[in-house]
Automatic annotation (TrEMBL):
Residues 40-134 form the M23ase beta-sheet core domain. PANTHER family: MUREIN HYDROLASE ACTIVATOR ENVC (PTHR21666:SF270), PEPTIDASE-RELATED (PTHR21666). SUPFAM superfamilies: Duplicated hybrid motif. CDD domains: M23_peptidase. GO terms for molecular function: metalloendopeptidase activity. It comes from the Bacteria. This is M23ase beta-sheet core domain-containing protein. InterPro entries: Cell_wall_metabolism_enzyme, Dup_hybrid_motif, M23ase_b-sheet_dom.
């Protein structure tokens, strides 16, 4: 199953459909009341209901599909653009596996409530090994950047 490409785009698609409230921003944060939660948040969290479909934002290779410390069930993608995508707190039962080649828009799995915290989707994007603010690198939402 493939999600439709964003209007006027062929390289990137939206990772999730719909609009969701951001519950934790990128960067330093205070104590959020969850034991083990990082005070230096290297991604953003969105309040997605359990079972929301998650799609590959770009073509690439699955480098991890399984349990990840703090994230619960997670999927990491090495994208063809060089970006590394990390999606955490997913439901078990992925449609992909580690090492698999994937295409933009391919269904990866569904959001969940595994790991630290309650139901939400965690998104980290890394470029050259460094976490960048997903709000500023909006490709994952289907917007092609320069």
């Amino acid at each position: 199953m493939r999600a439709p490409a964003a209007k006027g785009q062929s390289s990137y698609v939206m990772a999730v459909k719909g609009t969701y409230r951001m519950t934790s921003d990128f960067g330093p944060r205070g104590d959020i009341g969850i034991k083990g939660a990082s005070r230096d948040h290297r991604g953003v969290d969105y309040a997605t209901p359990v079972g929301t479909k998650l799609y590959a934002p770009e073509s690439g290779r699955i480098i991890k599909a399984g349990k990840a410390t703090g994230y619960g069930q997670a999927i990491y993608i090495q994208g063809d653009s060089g970006r590394r995508w990390e999606f955490g707190h997913l439901s078990p039962g992925f449609t992909v596996k580690t090492g698999q080649r994937i295409e933009a828009g391919q269904l990866l799995g569904r959001t969940g409530d595994t790991g630290l915290g309650n139901a939400h989707l965690h998104v980290t994007i890394r470029r050259n090994g460094v976490a960048v603010n997903p709000q500023q690198d909006a490709i994952w939402m289907g917007h092609k950047l320069k």
